[in-house]
Specification:
The chain is mainly alpha-helical. It contains 23 helices and 9 strands.
Length: about 675
Amino acid sequence: MANNVIRFKAKAELDAAQNLARFIEDCRTHLTVFGNDKWHENKWDTINGNRKVVVRFSTNLKPSNSYSYEPLSEPFLDFAKAYIKNSYTDRPVTNLQRHMEALRVLEEAIIAATGKADILMLNGTVLEHLDEVFHRQLSDPAARNKAGYQMQLILDFCRENFIAPSLPEWSNPYGKVKDLTIVLDEKGQEYRSEKLPTTEEMMLVAELFSKAPQLGIEAEYYTAIYALLMTAPSRGSEETALPVDCLVWEKDRAGDNQLGIRWVPAKKGKIGIKWVPTVMQDIVVMAVERLKRIGEPARKAAKFAEENPERFMVHDGCITPSNFPENAPLSIEQLNAALDLNLKSFSPLNTKWLKQLLVENDGVITYQTLGKFEYERFTKKFPKWPYVDKGQKVRVSEALLLHRDKEFHADFNPRGFSFSIPTVNYINDRFAESETKGERTLWAKHSFSLKSGEPIELTTHRARHWLSNMAEKGGMDELTLAHWAGRAKVGDNRKYDHRTEDEKSEQVADLMIPKNAGILDKIKHRIPVTFKEIGKDLDGAAIVTELGICEHDYAMTPCQRNGDCETCKELVCIKGFSDSLDLLKKREQEVQSQLNKALIDHDMGAFGADRWVTNHGWRLSHIRTKIRILEDENTPDGAVVRIPEEYDPSPVKEMLREKGLDTEVTSPEKLQFEDELFELMEL
């Protein structure tokens, strides 16, 4: 908010009407959000970052949608506009939905209590109507909670700014709703069980799919649809827009063929290819082939209707001669063959549509008559004809899920000239058992049941929940999962994640601390490294330093080196710990510089310089030895690197060795130095 914007400040000496008038005028005149010239419009919009923010001042008291609505009543409307401008100026949010829900509820409560939509009539009686309006207009508890919070802010604003100075305090009575996807109580478990199908249920789908060719065309068709839903987390409505050529093969980096499905997600999801898990590739190919085979006659009929509007397609079931005129009357037998009916005569007729058709055509039915009627009958099922989808990407004649009318009817044959697409409810009817559906499900028709005897209640969306949850458990990253599921926002994954908090914690632990975690993994994730992991027979954890790991037992004696770790025998370096290698190389340059200076001083005869040459050379040999071992390709990552004591024994052990006592330290003449290492150590 700019510092030069004039803001409304209430004055106690003014009455409520004066403060309200000043508030509305100041917001209308001085606040520029949503534009200065839009006050009299009832739909505002602006841009917040890369998102469009829209606010519609519509009332709840009359039916409305995004295109047709009635505005809030005057004079409440002016207060609502001023309040939105004022609130958005203070806090520009990306969504004003809850603000407007609260204002609409408040308008309705004021009218119910006073008969007039005037914020100046806000009083305790109005507050008594709020709860009833909230529950009537907002059935979702989470929505009530958020709108209730905004209502509390509105009422506090009116009281504090002397628009309703005597208004009793009102606190949001609608508590925050528990996220049932993660809570561990009984309600949480019940919610997850309702959303998430069991493994037994999903295995029954797999069994039904495998046996479908022996069970009939209906089982083949609907199990093929569900198999695709088990392949990638999708909505049932999205599947109806799949084209026949939806499968695509591409080679991955390893040169292996990977199968994908061209998918157009709903709800503004990203258009693209949903890749099929390798183990499901054969199933997907089989499912698509079944759907293509079953739908081929329907796609042929749809193609004819597209190319020959209002003409009847004479199909293989028709019994008229090849040169039969389109306007010639059809006999009852010819009509039965054309429409797959079983009528005895044209009268009396109980079929309403056919009776009406006879009346409208003077009792005569021709192919021309049937063409107009059947064309309208089947094309009106597709609002975007000749396309099956709203985006007009796939033609009806190319839709994978297309089938003929009565294709799966037990008592009637499918109509030769017909085409239809299943709704999500049609699919759910085959997989979700209930008392009202009776024997319609595939489970009942083919005697499939759960071991518990409980009804199988699979819907298309439960498959989406199941697959998303399996992906979460498998460790798929959130962005990949959102793209795979066709979600517009990564945050929407949360609605499909039904893992408990314990399961999430265990998975995080597995990711951070794998069972075979080595020293490098533990250093990276700041996990304690034990003494035993670096080859020292002690209990407890070692200390990780900038150069490596200190194996000194601080419980026994303090460090005697005062932080001089480079040549300390109790420091071990770890191959692959890049920080220590970089630091050792830096120290190498520093010590080399000091050694060069000491050599120059020694050549010039400076007193004591020889001792500095020895000291720097000894230090440099240690550093270079560690660097060479750490850079050696034959040294595996995670290897513990230390200079053996044989190459640098302690003064005490050296003295004992010279006296002939056993110190387990090899004498110099028995050591087998590699030439390169010898050069480093001898210097």
